[in-house]
Design goal:
- Two copies of one chain form a homodimer.
- Chain A has 335 residues and is an alpha+beta fold.
- Chain A has a domain of 208 residues: Malate/L-lactate/L-sulpholactate dehydrogenase, NADPH binding domain (Ribosomal Protein S8, Chain: A, domain 1).
- The first copy, chain A, is built from eleven helices and eleven strands.
- In chain A, helix 1 runs antiparallel to helix 2.
- The longest helix of chain A has 19 residues.
- The interface between A and B is large, with 72 and 72 residues.
C-alpha cells in the first residue's frame, strides 16, 4: 500500500519510543529506516523494525548505548559498540572522528559489537555534509560464495564512498559486493518469479533459478573473480581493524537470537586538493557523454536513489501490507 | 622466447643506468618491471621500458627525482612528483608515510605529476612488509566507458589492497576496474583472435569482437553498474585528494610526448585489532571450502600470481621477440 511519508514517520518514532529508545537515538534509527524506504531500498527499511524491537526486548540491542570510544592513536579510534543501535554508534563515531580527520588529514574508526548499520549511503552523506570524504565498510553473515566456490563464506560486505561537492549534493556510491541482495531473492520468492541463473547457488552449491532454493544457498559475488576479491579484501580489512568475527561466525543482523558481532569501518579524509569544481565539471561531462540509448542518459551513482526519494516524498512510500500491519500493531495505532 | 631471469635482470639495469638513472632508482624501476613479467603481467612489464627511456631522454621523466613531500597535516602528505619515476616517488612516499601511520594509526599520501606506477601489487606488498595495511589507488588515461555509455570517460582506475599476515605472505589484491586491460586487447589483436562481445566498444560506441576496433574504442567497466560506480568513485577520490587530472585530460602513461598528470593515493593503516591469526584461519577455511570443480580449489587473490612467479624463476620469463630485441638493443648487448 502507498502511505504518505508524514503518516509513517510518527509511527516509526512511536514504535522506538515504546521500547525505551532515547529521543536522539530514535531519531537516527527512524531516519535511516525511512530513508531506505524513500529510496526504494525496502530490504534496509521498515521490515527490519519488528526484529529490532525484539532484539531490544531481549537485550541484544541497547537503544541507550552510543559505544565506548577508545583512541588507540591520534587518528585511530576503536569502538566497542556495547550492543548499541548501528546508526547511533556509527553517528557517534563519525562525530568524534571528524575533528581528528580535520586535524590529521585522515582518521579511522573500527567498530565491533554494534547492531546492523543499515543503508551505508546514509553514513557517507553524513560525512560529506561535514565537508569530508567518507569510506564506510561493514560485514555481515556468510551469504556470498567465493568465485569458483559452492558455499556461503563471505558477507555481502558493502562499501559506501562519499565525496562532498561544492554547492551541490555529494557524490555517494553504496553497493554490496554480491550480485544482488538476499532481499531481492526473497522478493522474487514472494512474487513467485524465477531468478537469473547467475545470481545464486542452492544449498548444494548448484546453480538455481528457484528463489526459495537460493534462499537456502548463497549469492554470487558481483563481477566474478574481481568482485569476489574486493568482498574478501573488505572482509579482511574490517576484521583486521575491528577484531570482529568472520562471515561464517557472524550472527545478529538477520536474527533476534544472537548478539551482533560483525564489524564496521569508517574512514574520513579531508579533501585537501581544492579540486571540487573540477570534480563537478567532470561529473557534468560524464552525464552529457553519449549513452547507448538516447532515452537513458549516462547516470551517476545516487541519481536513481535521489529521484526515487523525491517521488516518494510527494506520492508516499510503497509499503508491503504485512510490514504496515506489523508497524501499526507495534505502534499501538489503528491500522 | 624464454629467457632466464638472471639474464634479463642485468640488461634492464644496464638500460636504466645508460640513461642516467641513479642506482637506487634503477633498482626500484627494474624490480617492478621484472616482477610484472615474473607474474605473467607483461602489460606492466618490459614492453614499457623503451617508452620510459624515451620519456627520460625527452625530459618527461626525471630518474633522479623522488618527489617533493609536503605534510599538509600530521597524517596527510601531498607529493609533487616532479616527473619522477612512479615506483621511485611511490616508494619514497611509502617510506615517509609509514612512521606517520604508526604514530597516527592511519596516514595518507596523494601524489601528482609522477610517472606510471606500474603493477600496484608491488606497493601493497611493500606496505604489508612494514606490517601495515595498504590501500593503493591510481588513475589513467580515459580507456573505460561508463555503464550505459559509449565513450571512454574513465581511467582503468586500479586498486590494490594489502593485508599483512603473521608468519605468511600477505594477502594482496590488485585489480583494474575495467573488465580486461587494454594490454589484453592488444594481445588478441597480435594473435588475430576475436574478443568476447562484452569486453569493449568500438570508436562509435558499438559492441565489437574485433580487437583492432576495440583498441580505438573503450573498455567495459567490470561488473556492470557496480564496477562503473567503483571506478568512478576511485577517480573522484584520487582527484579530490591529489588534485590530478580527470581521465579525459590525462596523458603520459601510454605515450612519450606528454608529462604524466594522473594521480596516485596511498593509505597506510596499522592493523590494531591483533586478529592476524584469525585472518589466517579464515583464509585456510576459504581454501578448503567446496569448489565448483574438484580439480580447482577455491583460490585467494594473489595465488595465481605467486605460482606464476615461482615457475618463472625456475623456467625463465616468456618475452615477446620484439620486446627482447628492443631490450638488448637499448642495453647495447649482443642479441
Amino acid at each position: 500500500m502507498l502511505v504518505p511519508f508524514d503518516e509513517v514517520k510518527p509511527l516509526v518514532r512511536a514504535v522506538l519510543d515504546g521500547c525505551g529508545t532515547p529521543a536522539a537515538a530514535a531519531g537516527l534509527q527512524a531516519e535511516i529506516l525511512l530513508e531506505a524506504e524513500l529510496r526504494g531500498l525496502p530490504s534496509h527499511g521498515l521490515h527490519r523494525l519488528p526484529r529490532l524491537v525484539r532484539r531490544i526486548h531481549q537485550g541484544l540491542a541497547d537503544p541507550g548505548a552510543t559505544g565506548e570510544q577508545v583512541w588507540q592513536r591520534p587518528g585511530f579510534m576503536s569502538v566497542e559498540g556495547c550492543r548499541g543501535l548501528g546508526p547511533v554508534v556509527g553517528a557517534a563515531a563519525i562525530d568524534a572522528l571528524a575533528p581528528a580527520a580535520r586535524h590529521n588529514g585522515i582518521a579511522i574508526a573500527a567498530v565491533r559489537n554494534s547492531n546492523h548499520l543499515g543503508m551505508l549511503a546514509w553514513y557517507a552523506e553524513r560525512i560529506a555534509a561535514l565537508g569530508l570524504i567518507g569510506i564506510v565498510l561493514s560485514t555481515s553473515e556468510a551469504l556470498v560464495h567465493p568465485f569458483g566456490g559452492r558455499r556461503a563464506m563471505l558477507g555481502t560486505n558493502p562499501i559506501a564512498i562519499g565525496v562532498p561537492m561544492p554547492a551541490a549534493e555529494p557524490f555517494v556510491l553504496d553497493l554490496a559486493t554480491s550480485t544482488v541482495s538476499m532481499g531481492k531473492i526473497h522478493d522474487h520468492a514472494l512474487k513467485r518469479r524465477a531468478i537469473p541463473e547467475d545470481w545464486a547457488l542452492d544449498a548444494d552449491g548448484e546453480p538455481t533459478t528457484d528463489p526459495k532454493e537460493a534462499m537456502r544457498g548463497s549469492l554470487a559475488p558481483f563481477g566474478g573473480a574481481k568482485g569476489y576479491g574486493l568482498g574478501l579484501a573488505f572482509e579482511l580489512l574490517v576484521a583486521s581493524l575491528a577484531g570482529s568475527a568472520f562471515a561464517p561466525d557472524v550472527r545478529g543482523t538477520l536474527d533476534a537470537e544472537h548478539p551482533c558481532n560483525k564489524g564496521d569501518v569508517f574512514i574520513l579524509v579531508e579533501p585537501l586538493s581544492g579540486s571540487g569544481h573540477a570534480v563537478a565539471d567532470y561529473l557534468a561531462a560524464l552525464r552529457s557523454s553519449p549513452s547507448t540509448s538516447p532515452a537513458t542518459p549516462v547516470g551517476i551513482p545516487g541519481d536513481g536513489s535521489r529521484a526515487r526519494r523525491r517521488a516518494a516524498l510527494t506520492r508516499g512510500i510503497e509499503i508491503a501490507d504485512a510490514v504496515w500491519d506489523q508497524l501499526t500493531s507495534l505502534a499501538g495505532a489503528p491500522a
